[in-house]
Amino acid sequence: MKDPCENSAENEPEEEVKAAAGDFSEIAEAEKGSVADSDSDFETEGTLGLGEVVKDTLYLGFCQAFNVVPVSCFLRQENAAELSLRHRGLGPQGAQALASMLTSNPYIKRLDLRDNGLCVAGAEALADVLSKNSSISDVDLSENQFGAPGVQALCAALTVNQAVQKMKLAGNGLEEQAAKYLADLLLVHTGLKSLDLSYNQLNDQAGETLGPALAENTGLTELDISWNHLRGPGAIAFARGLEANIFLKVLDISYNGFGDLGALAVAEALKVNNVLEELNMSNNRIFAAGALSLGMDLRVNQTLRILVVSRNPMQSEGCFGLLKSVQDNTASALELLDISDIEVNRKFDDLASSVKVILPGLCIKKGAQREQYPQGSAPK
């Protein structure tokens, strides 16, 4: 089967596509002029207004120029605040046709193009949109095979126009090189509040690149970097970035490989970080020693409300150490301690009963936890 991201020999030359699209623009402008000179009433109920007629003509023209099937729901949703076109198989050409109409669209605030095989060409077309459109603030471009080149184009666009506040780039094959572009973005884009980089291949080197950028970032409040390959020195460097960050409130680093040394680095960070409220470290190869390191943080931290450490081999000893630290912290803000899928003994249960007396608002989640994995994914 042909890779949809490979250039097809059947594709029209770029000059011909532009020329064809230009012809349709001229037709639309002529149509706009002729209609404007008439006395027709476009306010009749059920009839498209002048602007809608012209925009639809342009979009259909671009689709014909790019040799793609028009997305009918776009014609119905283009004036809505949210445009959701998930799993539509748009491909690079479909993205280019769509982008031609999004640049100046003042209505759409949230754009969802998840799983459309947009590839690098599609990323570049949308990057052009995001560099100019000041209305779109929430974008989901997950599962589109962008790789580093696609992310490079998008990061450059977000640097020019900082209207986007929430970006999802999950499942795009991002590796070490992509981390460099993302790090540069974090250093300059202070308006970006939420970033999803889950289900990629960000590794040790990526962690060493992103850590210092996270330390300097002055806007991000939510970061999801779960299901990557942060471990060893990369995990430690990333955790040190957390230590200096004073804006991040929600962090998901689950399903990486932080291990005990990574857990120690996170604990050291949270001793001085007084902002983070939610931390997910599930399935990170943390044993009892790493859990006891995290306990050092829980003994003094006053802001963390949610801590998820499920599916770690810390056993009952590690869970007991975490909960004992919470008990010893009279100023603890913890509301949820999730130790799902970790077997605990009677000693832990007795301590949990005692803690519930002094901290009745604390929820301790135990037992088996069934997780839903995206199609084609599997636990590490």
Automatic annotation (TrEMBL):
Pfam families: LRR_6
Source domain of life: Eukaryota
SMART domains linked to this entry: LRR_RI
InterPro entries, alphabetized: Leu-rich_rpt, LRR-containing, LRR_dom_sf
Start and end residues of each stretch annotated as Disordered: 1-23
Record-given protein name: Leucine rich repeat containing 74B
UniProt source species: Cavia porcellus
